[in-house]
Design a protein that fits this description.
alpha/beta; seven-stranded parallel β-sheet; globular; binds flavin mononucleotide; oxidoreductase; RNA-binding; FMN
Length: 312
């Protein structure tokens, strides 16, 4: 997820039980890779294997070259983004806009699969719009082009993020192909993960927004699927430790100034679930210094554990 699954967050999600994580979408246009943003998206230092990189674009040769260059730099799985509805990507006929043009989809998939020795996977939506859910056709096309696995977000391109994800098309896609299918969209609890797996027959679930500020969702889902029982929520002391470690990793990865800015959204997501979190977040967002962020968060959690003890 662009702006979310940077290296520090990927490390954390793997530690918390995610079986596979994907780096932030990278433009296929390698002439733009000199920017700091792209450079940071291409860092995979100490990343647990397999290192999975997602590329986005609309030109088959450009995507093939981007895949080749990333494989050369150590990517072990190349994922192609045909799921992003963002205007910036779609104006250039990339992301989910490609779903409208099945011939171009085939050209892209063939070009990328032939360009690299590593597995190539594909991320799609269920179709272009509700009247044209061509997910099954695209999935069959993907399989015939040599795509190794498919992730499907249960919304159309036209849906954006509106409404609820639907899983009937995902079930039809799973039934139509023999490559692994990852079900995605609105999965935010162990019970929902189990229900979506049962409904679709998918091989795995893919979690996006529900992991923001809650990376332990992976171990919760994993535990539930294995044991059929819910894990208790992480104790406050563990949340505190994870958040402080996440903060330190962001400061180290981006540098203190940018790291402190980027930390705000992550901290906001964690705090949304804590008592008084909304008010503290406003205060936290006024802090520019990395050191003061650590200090303020430590104090907030000290206070929180005091009131929790009193209440208990
Ligand atoms: C902030 C944000 C950034 C995203 N970036 C990407 C991306 O770079 N590549 C991609 O395939 N999907 C991206 N997505 C879509 C998610 O991967 C996922 O398909 C979608 O959020 C639905 O799943 P969820 O309900 O579990 O979040 C992004 C979503 C959000 C909210």
């Amino acid at each position: 997820m662009a702006g979310v699954t940077d290296l520090p967050f990927r490390h954390l999600c793997r530690r918390m039980g995610a079986g596979l994580v994907v780096a932030e979408m990278l433009t296929a246009d390698h002439r733009l890779w000199h920017t700091r943003k792209s450079q940071l998206r291409m860092v995979h230092a100490d990343e647990p294997e397999p290192r999975m990189v997602q590329i986005a674009g609309g030109d088959p040769q450009m995507l093939a070259e981007a895949a080749r260059l990333n494989a050369e730099r150590g990517a072990q799985i190349i994922d192609i983004n045909m799921g992003c509805p963002a205007k910036k990507v779609c104006n250039k006929a990339a992301g989910s806009a490609l779903l409208k043009d099945e011939a171009l989809v085939a050209d892209i998939l063939n070009a990328v699969v032939q360009a690299v020795d590593v597995p190539v996977t594909l991320k799609i939506r269920t179709g272009w719009c509700q009247d044209s859910r061509n997910g099954v056709t695209v999935a069959r096309l993907a399989e015939s082009c040599g795509i190794a696995a498919l992730a499907v977000h249960g919304r159309t391109r036209a849906d954006g993020f509106r409404g609820e994800a639907e899983y009937d098309t995902l079930a039809a896609i799973k039934a139509a192909v023999s490559i692994p299918v990852f079900a995605n969209g609105d999965i935010d609890s162990p019970a929902k993960a189990a229900a979506v797996l049962a409904h679709t027959g998918a091989d795995a679930v893919m979690i996006g927004r529900a992991a923001q500020g809650r990376p332990w969702i992976f171990r919760e889902i994993d535990h539930y699927l294995r044991e059929g029982k819910l894990l208790s929520p992480p104790p406050l002391a563990e949340v505190r430790q994870l958040l402080l470690e996440h903060l330190a990793a962001l400061h180290a990865f981006y540098g203190k100034e940018q790291g402190a800015r980027i930390a705000r959204k992550h901290v906001g997501w964690y705090l949304a679930q804590q008592p008084g979190g909304q008010n503290f977040r406003k205060e936290f967002n006024t802090i520019d210094s990395a050191e003061q962020q650590v200090e303020a968060l430590s104090k907030y959690f000290n206070h929180l554990s005091e009131i929790t003890e009193v209440a208990a």
